[in-house]
Design goal:
alpha/beta, 8-stranded mixed sheet, 580 residues, single chain
Length: 580
């Protein structure tokens, strides 16, 4: 009876919790299309994912049961562009203590802010503490403000890699590596305790590009010579707020109430209450009479290809081959869609799934223009699915290339035998029936079989690139070998055509399709928010719980999960680089 009472009580709590989430979802659905009215003399408040989620749970902190603000790159760029012509918006306030964006995404947002300033409207930036990423964004502002007791990072970029060889040695688990490409360093974390010379060389190359782009653009915006900025970083000159002011990285040290006074002066009002802010997340729903959008029956489709590449259905952060192919097919067969922009932000993944998507890109290209827009990373499988496009557009600091292949098998025999006392015995009906077994060493003949498979996939990979980029296989092989390039360097070796962001890709697609007035639609179509809430309830609850428990180490948890879910030969950047 007591057990029944406890069960009833727990069931009641669970049902109550789920009911609450359903109410949140319904409220989100009902309020989704509610228009936001922008008052006169307003300031767009920009507190900053690749694409805004349609899932109400993504904006709900399941630990505190409070709403979070979340906006994707697509809406950030659209809202900045819309604010440029909105007579109600007088300027933008960047409140950028931290920004969860990669280098290329930061570049796209910063370029949009620079374009916004051509309207004659102002941009102010404020923070209690600037990271290097948030300061890079803030440096585009007319005035940069810092809290008098705040701080700023300006020290250069560092790359940190995690290596697991020591752990595997202690566990007596031996990785069996089969790869092609001297730069294909995806497997290094399992077989060594530090970077190889080749890996160090390529990382120094693309991280150097990211840092140089930052220096050049900050120099242009702040009027400080690049060597002077490098000296500031090398000597750790910014150690307190007064240093940032002294070296002209900021314009004024103010508290938030003093910032309001600065904004009042800019707007020509003596009353702070006359200042109206509209949050960039809510501005998406604001109707603007003089919006520059062109309304037409003709469309350009942006197909989002984001996350690790796997076979089957995808999610917001996983590129499923089935989901992506369905989106491309829909764009190909819809006569009103005149061109396709494939937005790739992926480190790669399954070689097979990558080839399935590549085929769909090729079929689409035969019917209408296909332009690839590369985000923060479009490497390995991410480049594989891109190479068939008519034109490839990347930011100068996009991480791309990594044309190489690898496979990993695990020999855990000693772990089971020596650590746990577990042994295995096997009955075979064929010589290779247990090929790939994780409880014994790989035989030489088996390695040869798998190596041939890896070589075949690599040959197919470079053949796809050679065909799509109109260069010889030999040339692709010479710049391939798993090497990673920055976008600007990739352009020099013909892996990328144009430097720019997603707006540039759309512009090129429209020109190729010979359309001047068009609507932009996003694919794959996002699920109905309420259905998404129900289908992802368990996963999102688990994710929120794990994030809360492990904090900043969550990325290592997801990396381990990714390794455990890998199947077959991989075309991917295996490791997750920390650039800070």
């Amino acid at each position: 009876m007591f057990a029944s009472m406890v069960g009833f009580f727990l069931s009641f709590l669970i049902i109550t919790f789920i009911s609450f989430l359903l109410i949140v979802g319904i409220v989100a659905v009902v309020g989704k299309d509610k228009s936001v009215k922008v008052a006169d003399n307003s300031i767009l408040l920009a507190k900053f994912t690749e694409r805004t989620s349609n899932n109400p749970l993504d904006n709900l902190d399941l630990r505190t049961l409070t709403s979070k603000e979340n906006i994707g790159l697509n809406d950030i760029l659209d809202n900045i562009k819309k604010a440029k012509t909105d007579n109600h918006i007088k300027g933008i306030l960047l409140d950028v203590s931290s920004v969860a964006m990669g280098a290329a995404t930061l570049q796209e947002v910063r370029n949009a802010l620079i374009d916004f300033k051509t309207s004659g409207k102002f941009i102010y930036a404020y923070s209690e503490e600037y990271t290097q990423g948030s300061y890079y964004l803030a440096s585009a502002a007319d005035q940069v403000f810092l809290n008098p007791q705040g701080g700023m990072d300006f020290k250069g970029l560092a790359v940190e890699m995690m290596f697991f060889k020591g752990t595997l040695d202690k566990l007596e688990i031996e990785p069996e590596i089969i790869r092609h490409g001297k730069f294909k360093s995806a497997v290094e974390p399992f077989i060594t305790d530090k970077m190889s010379d080749a890996n160090r060389k390529q990382i120094r190359g693309f991280v150097g590009t990211i840092w140089n782009v930052l220096l050049e653009n900050v120099s242009k915006s702040r009027g400080i010579e690049v060597p002077a900025l490098q000296l500031i970083a090398d000597s750790l000159s910014i150690q307190k707020p007064e240093d940032a002011l002294k070296y002209k990285l900021v314009d004024k040290l103010v508290y938030r109430d003093e910032l309001m006074t600065e904004l009042s002066k800019k707007l020509g009002t003596s009353n702070k209450k006359d200042i109206s802010f509209v949050n960039i997340t809510k501005y998406t729903k604001a109707a603007v009479k003089n919006d520059a959008k062109h309304w037409s029956s003709e469309k350009i489709a942006i197909v989002y290809a984001v996350g690790e590449i796997r076979s089957g259905k995808g999610k917001e952060d996983v590129m499923g081959s089935e989901t992506t192919c369905e989106a491309l097919k829909k764009a190909r067969t819809d006569d009103k869609i005149k061109a396709v922009v494939l937005r790739v932000n992926s480190p790669g993944g399954s070689a097979l799934a990558s080839d399935v998507i590549w085929r769909e890109v090729l079929l689409t290209k035969a019917v209408k223009p296909v332009v690839v827009s590369m985000g923060d990373v479009a490497a390995s499988g991410g480049y594989y699915i891109s190479c068939a496009a008519d034109t490839i557009v990347a930011e100068p600091n996009t991480i791309t290339g990594s044309i190489g292949v690898f496979g990993v098998l695990w020999n855990s025999k000693k772990f089971w035998n020596d650590k746990l006392g577990v042994t295995f015995d096997t009955v075979l009906t064929g010589k290779y029936a247990d090929i790939g077994s994780s409880v014994r060493p790989m035989r030489g003949s088996e390695r040869a079989v798998i190596q041939r498979s890896v070589e075949k996939v690599y040959d197919t990979f470079i053949s796809r690139v050679a065909e799509g980029r109109h260069i010889s296989k030999a040339d692709v092989d010479s710049i391939g070998q798993g090497r990673v390039w920055s976008g600007i360097d990739a352009q020099k070796i013909h892996l990328v055509d144009v430097i720019g962001g997603i707006d540039k890709a759309v512009e090129i697609a429209a020109r190729m399709a010979k359309v001047t007035k068009y609507n932009i639609i996003s694919l794959p179509e996002q699920k109905d928010p309420l259905n998404e809430l129900l289908s992802n309830l368990t996963d999102d609850s688990e994710t929120s719980f794990v994030k809360h428990q492990v904090g900043d180490s969550y990325k290592y948890y997801t990396q381990l999960q990714s390794i455990l879910k890998q199947n077959g030969i991989q075309t991917r950047m295996e490791y997750d680089l920390d650039i800070y």
